[in-house]
Amino acid sequence: MRNLKKIIIVLLIIIIVIGGGVFYLGLTDSLKINRVMEGAKKGMEKEDINLLMSYVSHKYMDDYGFDYPMARRFMSGLFKDFDNFEVTIDNPVIKIQDDAATIQFYLWISVEWNGSSAYIVGTNRAGANVRAHLKKEFLNWKVVKIEGVR
Predict the structure, then answer these.
(1) Measuring CA to CA, which residue among 101, 99, 48, 94 is closest to residue 75?
(2) In angstroms, rounded to a whole number, what is the distance separating the alpha carbons of residues 71 and 78?
(3) pTM confidence score
(4) Among candidate residues 82, 84, 83, 57, the one with its CA nearest the CA of residue 71
(5) What Cα–Cα distance (Å) separates residue 71 from each residue in 15, 46, 60, 96?
(6) C-alpha 104: how far from its chain's center?
(7) Number of Cβ within a 10 Å radius of residue 20
(8) 9: left (phi over 0), alpha (psi -120 to 50) or beta
(9) What is the model's pLDDT at position 1?
(10) Model pLDDT for residues 80-114, shown as the tens digit of each residue
(11) How many Å apart are CA 101 and CA 31, to the nearest integer?
(12) What pLDDT, on the 0 to 100 scale, is given for residue 45?
């Protein structure tokens, strides 16, 4: 009877250790990247520049010539010019390789402008095909580049 209890306890400890290792090595990065997407979406919808930019790396640089300070000024200007941001992200596909990741997704951003609704990213027919590049900085994932937003 005592040996059975010891065996059960040892098996539970082994399951917990293996489960924790699998969770730590693979699933946490995907969860953290999903939190980056959701957090950035929430930052835009709340028009909170500090929340939005907390998910962007200070090393941000894209093909449009924007770096971190320029992107921050650009987004601040959008928040001043438009109201009621609504962000829709569809079909995200996350690919992780070491300390880098890409997320491919379709994006719509609609706003209120002069009393009517308008899309500033995507159209009523299709979302913009966006690719976000992320790097792991210390323990967090940060956006370092975005492609496909026109």
Answers:
(1) 48
(2) 11
(3) 0.79
(4) 57
(5) 46, 17, 9, 25
(6) 11
(7) 10
(8) alpha
(9) 64
(10) 999 999 999 998 999 999 899 999 999 999 999 88
(11) 12
(12) 95
pLDDT of residue 57: 95
Domains and CATH numbers, the chain: 2-147 (3.10.450.50)
Contact 138, 32 (CB under 8 A): no
How far apart CA 76 and CA 130 sit, in angstroms, is 21
CA dihedral 58, 78, 95, 129 (to 10 degrees): -140
Tokens of 125: 């027919």
Q: Give the rounded distance of the alpha carbon of 103 from its chain centre.
A: 8
Q: Which of 148, 38, 54 is nearest to 88 (CA)?
A: 38
Low-confidence ranges of the chain (pLDDT < 50): none
Closest by Cα among 105, 54, 104 to 75: 54
pLDDT of residue 21: 62
